[in-house]
Amino acid sequence: MKFYDLAAGSNPRRVRIYMAEKGIEIPMHQMDMMKNEHHTPDYLKINPFAKMPALELDDGTILTESVAICRYLEALHPEPPMFGRTALEEGQVEMWNRRSELEIAIPSAQCFQHTSDFWKDRLEQIPAWGEACRSKVLKQMVIFDTHLQGREFLATDDYTVADITLQCGVLLGKGIGLRIPAELENLTAWWKRVSARPTARA
User: Fold this and answer.
1) Which of 23, 56, 76 is a domain's end point?
2) Is the Cβ–Cβ distance between 4 and 43 less than 8 Å?
3) What is the tens place of the pLDDT at every residue in 117-147?
4) Alpha carbon distances (Å) from 194 to 69, 78, 101, 139, 160
5) Stretch 84-96: mean pLDDT, rounded?
6) How far apart are the first and last CA of the chain?
7) What is the 3-state secondary structure (H, E, C) of the chain?
8) pLDDT at 24
9) How many other CB atoms are there within 10 angstroms of residue 96's CB atom?
10) pLDDT surpassing 90 at residue 18
11) What's the domain range around 45?
12) One domain for residues 192 and 96
């Protein structure tokens, strides 16, 4: 297998943290966006959407999208379970993973894309939309803070892929000055726990 990675990318980081939690090692190929490697004909055959990550299996089959890659690896390496231990837990993990993605990770990414000089001349930036996304993240963080009261992790009693998704979204936000407000003590405590895990720098 070969994992097409982007060191600074949130979605590749999701898979790297997941693999580190599982103790899975896969050869990695680092993509260089500054050299536009993700738009070369060879890579577009791997992922026509020109995004990372991508997982190339031994038979040449390609999987893209971070959660899809994690689900495939989960089937191969079920322990420790990262998508829940029971039917109910699987539903809870799916629910909070989607919430983390839709309410925190994606709007944080859009804030970055529409307000950062890094993306200037790479896409059409709409700064007002980026700031609207920033406001949305801060508003939704309050809901996550309330949910985390008395809880160690987001979806179940275990650290799961839902925590990884939220973790990567919060980390991206920190990079653009979108930090957890100090008054959100539960979310702040959760962040300290997950970012202290040995896998957090994967």
Assistant:
1) 76
2) yes
3) 877 877 889 999 999 999 999 999 999 999 9
4) 21, 21, 17, 21, 11
5) 98
6) 18
7) CEEEECCCCHHHHHHHHHHHHHCCCCCEEECCHHHCHHHCHHHHHHCCCCCCCEEECCCCCEEECHHHHHHHHHHHCCCCCCCCCCHHHHHHHHHHHHHHHHHHHHHHHHHHHHHCHHHECCECCCHHHHHHHHHHHHHHHHHHHHHCCCCCCCCCCCCCHHHHHHHHHHHHHHHCCCCCCCCCHHHHHHHHHHHCCHHHHC
8) 98
9) 22
10) yes
11) 2-76
12) yes
Query: Which of 88, 86, 127, 155 is CA-nearest to residue 119?
Result: 127
Q: Which residues contact 122 (CB under 8 A, 6 or more apart)?
A: none
Would residue 148 count as lying in a domain?
yes
pTM for the model stands at 0.95
58 and 134 share one domain: no
Sign of CA dihedral 184, 189, 194, 196: positive
pLDDT at 160 over 90: yes
